[in-house]
Amino acid sequence: MRPPPRTAFGFLLLLLLPPAPDAARKLTPCQQCRALVDKFNQGMANTAKKNFGGGNTAWEEKTLSKYEFSEIRLLEILEGLCESSDFECNQMVEQQEERLEAWWLQLKKKYPDLFEWFCVQTLKVCCSPGTYGPDCSACQGGSKRPCSGNGHCNGDGSRQGDGSCQCHIGYQGPLCKDCVSSYFSSLRNETHNICTACDESCKTCSGPTNRDCLECEEGWARVEDTCLDVDECAAETPPCSETQYCENVNGSYTCEECDSTCVGCTGKGPAKCKQCVSGYSKEDGQCADVDECSLAEKACKRKNENCYNTPGSFVCVCPEGFEETEDACVQTAQGGEWGGLGSQVLGLGTPAACRNKQESSLGVTGSWEAAVGNLGSSRRAPAPQDTDKLGQWTAPSGGVVFRLDSGVQGEARSAGRCREGEVEGRRARWSH
């Protein structure tokens, strides 16, 4: 009796299943066969004494011997071989179901090793351990102990590879019988050789300690009969740059960056600084930030300016409601609109008699009531040719003019008689 055949609908579902992950798709035929056999063996273990829990021992032994080779048990094992999403596994079971059934019912006693019978002899996708290639030839050193037991045979157990030895660490040679230079033979006879690592101070050795070195490793030096570490950091010329400090390690050294507060250092952290970078000073033996804002001499020079300390520096910021000028932080006038210069502001060509006798005013928010001082104290452009600076303006008493704009306002006078006329002046915004 065979397991019930899978329906066409069920087979269609298998075809519609998503492809297996990359790792599963890349399995070789031998790996696929071995995986199937491993699951089959696990299924046999899981069903070995199913539904038998004690009682009539004689009856159980008789019944169990029948169950051991029963088709019911085989069906249980086959149903548990593959995940529903594993297309390749399900496909292989479909293709090899009759062979597995024949082995179970007829050949199991004669060929108890399912892997050897199924994967090696029947499907011929694998080889026995210690053999390789299309004809399952013996590996280097023989199939019983390939590579002298100190390496891996290329293609071992598969129909691939060339049978050459890939030696384990510490071994070398075509049969992996010899030790590499930094290992020594701690046990050797006609069939075995055990290679053990030398002490880290040895390049070559005859034993396990630093006294057994035949040659010292780089970074070590022989002192009497022992290889000792060389302290490169103690050299007359340090091996690291000025912004680094040296740390000695066995057989070598490392260069580590100094702390960011240091100008040169002898070790890790601000306590090891030779000198401090700008903005830091020695405090309790280490470089600490200088609070420039708390010094007696003001760090921020402009009027109304606020100082904020930062690591290694400081920033100067005008407070809210103030605007920055070259010399000060000035408060923005409430409603301070652009206004024209007063009618008494004169051009550069105006005679001194008129210029010195007149007073000027600055219009703010449309008015002319903000006196800005007499023209004698006003600022003047350096030359009449500089049309960009033609005109005069005056800082108001108790305030600061901080932006200027071109405009045409006012009247001009000459020869003692101040005549009417337009002159080019400026418009200003100011605060007090």
TrEMBL record:
SMART domains xref list: EGF, EGF_CA, FU
Bias type Basic and acidic residues, positions: 417-432
A GO molecular-function descriptor: protein disulfide isomerase activity
Region entry Disordered, spans: 409-432
Coiled coil ranges: none
Signal sequence, renumbered to the chain: 1-23
Superkingdom, natural source: Eukaryota
One Pfam assignment: EGF_CA
Subcellular location: Endoplasmic reticulum
Chief place of localization: endoplasmic reticulum
Similarity comment: family membership: Belongs to the CRELD family.
Cited PANTHER family: EGF-LIKE DOMAIN-CONTAINING PROTEIN, FIBRILLIN-RELATED
Protein name: protein disulfide-isomerase
Source organism per UniProt: Marmota monax (Woodchuck)
